[in-house]
Amino acid sequence: MDEAVKEANLSLKEGGIPIGAVLVYENKIIGRGHNRRVQNNSAILHAEMDALENAGRLTSDVYKNCELYTTLSPCIMCSGAVLLYKIKKVVIGENKTFLGAEDLLIKNGVAVEVLNDERCVKMMKEFIENNPKLWNEDIGE
Amino acid sequence: MDEAVKEANLSLKEGGIPIGAVLVYENKIIGRGHNRRVQNNSAILHAEMDALENAGRLTSDVYKNCELYTTLSPCIMCSGAVLLYKIKKVVIGENKTFLGAEDLLIKNGVAVEVLNDERCVKMMKEFIENNPKLWNEDIGE
User: Which GO terms describe its biological process (chains A, B) (predicted)?
Assistant: First the structure.
């Protein structure tokens, strides 16, 4: 989660939305990323999607043994990507400022762990308070 | 759907997976795309995601009045993107060669129309028969 938080901080420094993610396979980070809505004018590069894209094309044998660490509860799009690739576990920094599709993950057998890490909560709370319009755009509201 | 089929054919000509999509708002195409797994070495650019990305950042007022045309039944990731942005309708070329997460779309109030267009069925059937490994990679199998 420390590495996902680093990605979130990097996004903030770039003027973007502070959400980060890393994809882990056999205890090694094989993909890392952060939200790129502002930086790339992207509608689809949430942190989790960016990490998956940066990990490159992988086989199902790899995905099904991966863990995805993300600083924020994953939205329905990112949860869908987790389910497409049958990623076995998602570790979530926090779900206090936004609750994504954790239920759908759990219902489909994905292990979900929520840390409610105070660093993640603080970062998102401040960002949402200061950028409500941008935040709503990111979650389709 | 003709325009989505054109995108699928374009992908095939580029050596890629023949799936195309277009995003329509007020009867105009505002985003178009095709699967870019092969072309961009992408793990996330399914046709629907590519069309959404190419449409750029839009407000919820626009998304909720959009229709997404796709040559193939959308997987759980692409269906998740539709739900994130509350796209009102998805028109599907065919769901005979692959059945995506149509149930999840319908359950969440998205209008779903399946054409079972023979052009789409033929294109995917031939592609899957000739490229089973690549196809399985694209759907996380």
Answer: nucleobase-containing small molecule metabolic process; pyrimidine-containing compound metabolic process
Contact B43 A60 (CB under 8 A): no
- Per residue in A55-86, pLDDT (tens digit) is 999 999 999 999 999 999 999 999 999 999 99
By Cβ distance, the residue of A45, A57, A77 closest to B77 is A77
Length of chain A counted residue by residue: 141
Residue numbers in B near A79 (CB within 8 A): 80
Q: Residue B134: which domain range? A: 1-139
DSSP of A72-117: E---HHHHHHHHHTT-SEEEEEE-SS---SHHHHHHTT-EEEE---
**Model-level pTM?**
0.97
Active site residue A102: no
Q: Which residues of chain A have pLDDT under 70?
A: none
- Do the Cβ atoms of A43 and B57 come within 8 Å? yes
Which residue in A has a C-alpha nearest to residue B31's C-alpha?
A43
Residues of B in contact with A137 (CB under 8 A): 57, 59-60
Cβ pair B99, B114 in contact under 8 A: no
Instruction: State ipTM.
Output: 0.96
Label residue A133 exposed, middle or buried (CB < 10 Å: 0-12, 13-18, 19+): exposed
What would the two tokens of residue B29 be?
């195409």
User: Which residues have CB under 8 Å from A109's CB, separation 6+?
Assistant: none
C-beta of residue B18 within 8 angstroms of C-beta of residue B47: no
Count of domains forming chain A: 1
CATH number at residue A58: 3.40.140.10
Q: If you write DSSP's letter for every residue of B56-106 in order, what string do you get?
A: -S--HHHHTTEEEEESS---HHHHHHHHHTT-SEEEES--SS---SHHHHH
**Would the CB atoms of A76 and B80 count as touching at under 8 Å?**
yes
